[in-house]
Amino acid sequence: MSDSDSIEMQIAQVKARVSDAMTLAKSLGADGAEVAMTRQQGLSVSTRLGEVENVEFTNDGALGITVYKAGRKGSASTADLSEQALTQAITAAVNIAKYTSVDDCAGMADKALLAMSPPDLDLYHPKALSTAEAIDIAKHCEDTALSYDERINNSDGATLASFAGFKVYGNSHGQLVAYPSTRHSLSCVMIAKQGQDMQRDYAYTVNREFAAMDSAQSIGQHASKEALSRLGARKLATTKVPVMFRADIANTLFGHFIAAISGGNLYRKSSFLLDAIGQQVFPEFLTISERPHLLKALASSAFDAEGVATKDREIITDGCLATYLLTSYSARKLGLQTTGHAGGIHNWQLAMKDSGQGGDFDQMLKTLGTGLLVTELMGQGVNVVTGDYSRGAAGFWVENGEIAYPVDEITIAGKLQDMFAGIVAIGHDIDMRGSIRTGSIIVNEMQIAGS
Q1: Which residue intervals define the domain Metalloprotease TldD/E C-terminal in the entry (predicted)?
Q2: What is the Cα–Cα distance from 9 to 178, expressed in whole angstroms?
């Protein structure tokens, strides 16, 4: 039996139990119900200094059910899919609903918005991998890193993970949908030492397809290069300068933007972007597009956590905010319609409307001129209500478009409103390893607090 046959059989079995759960919920007096189950199976191995540190097999998943009755809501979950366990869980959900407050905004998504026949996005690429093979790959990655330079004399290890699973979702509107998916990753963390100076850094790769990941050798070498590049780090004097966020760090800026335009913060009036639809948030040259149906992409999904069909959407057009990110509940709170964002965003793509500034990483350094390149952020000093931004950082001082020396133990600060409006360039060095696909970002000016 092939892996695809096996996963399809598992999905069919869970679909049958989800259907049974919805029927049972109706028989117990629920006006409506939605049931979801995510199951994941896989292997994770870690090595450190040539020794196996951890081997973990995963085979878990739980069925969650939410019932609605007379404007009230109750939820329960179970990892046991037997008829008795399902009955207990659904009975518990129905009983809980008796004691919750009436909420006119609660309930399933509107039927017209659901993905009844979602497309196949080619997210399932299983890899037959033995424990010995996984250990060999992790060891090879770490060995390559350790042998890269004599100043690399310690390691926090290498980890290989390979997971396959599926999601099934159904509701009493008649929707019963599912899809399988895989996720493979390899990471390595190295420690460099020169005199009394020790620095730690890492590298990683992740993909739906195992063969599409970067090689173990390249990840090991990259981890060592990153750690070595940080040796001799200096502190900076307090100043205001342009700041470049490297591509793998730049996505965090847009994570704060996501929080600011998410329905939960909006209806609670806890965002600096209240009533901002149509307003200029970024420079005119910047666009953000959402593309949920990219084949094999890490953040692709044909439907959200409520079964709502996802679709291509423009988030930012000519720098202006085109949409909020809403679930069914937050949309009703705001008198709007859900945007299919229950559970998160789907493949954001950032671009500059014209070529203008930008270019590859080296060209971005030239555009920065003299300023700070940020390669690491620490702490959580961001207030989405006011836009205040203050985080610990490390990276490199850049002079005349060239990296001069590493820096650490500094703080960068500003207002998100000013940082977004002050973006002057987006690089072509796009990081594809997450849900936000962006190159490096240059912000015209930020406060640097140093020695």
Answers
A1: 238-450
A2: 12
Taking 50 as the threshold, does the pLDDT of residue 1 lie above it? no
Task: Round to whole Å and give the CA distance between 67 and 34.
Answer: 7
Length of the chain: 451
Interatomic CA distance for residues 123 and 301, integer angstroms: 9
Q: Is the pTM of this model over 0.90?
A: yes
Q: String of b and e for 390-416 (b: at least 16 CB within 10 Å)?
A: bbbbbbbbbeeeeeeebbbebbbbbbb
Average pLDDT of the chain is 94
Six token digits for residue 369? 């001129």
Query: What gap in Å lies between CA 325 and CA 341, rounded to an integer?
Result: 6
DSSP SS3 for 53: strand
156 contact partners, CB below 8 Å, separation of at least 6: 48, 189, 190, 191, 200, 202
Taking only the tens place, the pLDDT of each residue in 241-268 is: 999 999 999 999 999 999 999 999 999 9
Burial 68-90 (b: 16+ CB within 10 A, else e): bbeebbbebebeebeeeebbebb
Judged by DSSP in three states, 198 sits in strand
- Backbone torsion region of residue 27, taken as left when φ is above 0, otherwise alpha when ψ lies between -120 and 50, otherwise beta: alpha
pLDDT digits (tens, 9 = 90+) for 152-198: 989 999 999 999 999 999 999 999 999 999 999 999 999 999 999 99
Domains of the chain, earliest start first? 3-229 (3.30.2290.10), 239-449 (no CATH)
